[in-house]
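Title: [Solved] HxlR family transcriptional regulator 3D structure

Original question kept below for reference.
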Amino acid sequence: MGGKCPIESTLSLINGKWKLLILKELSQGAVRYGKLGAAIPAVSAKVLTQQLRELEEDGLIVRTVYAEVPPRVEYSLSDMGTSIFSVFKELRRWGLEDDGLVRGECSFCGQCIPVHGREKGD
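Solution (posted by the thread starter after getting help):
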């Protein structure tokens, strides 16, 4: 039994205080660093940069640098990053279930599912 638990592997990819929020912001398309920082104002620049690097190293996001003056950098979901939204859809479904203790509500913001990965009925 030398293999790593698949749940543990998945959680290690998205483990980090801000990674889920970063992925959610990127679900709507490519975003520049400044816009990400503005969308998640509680995260420091240092931590945002660190979390973006980790997500890129793990293959969940793509960093694209445009040869312009000043340089423009955009972040977007990779195919692997897009595929993780099936997990998020389940988290949303589970969070909306009435467990008697916590009643979840959904704003229907649509960010549970990336724009380019939406299915009929979502």
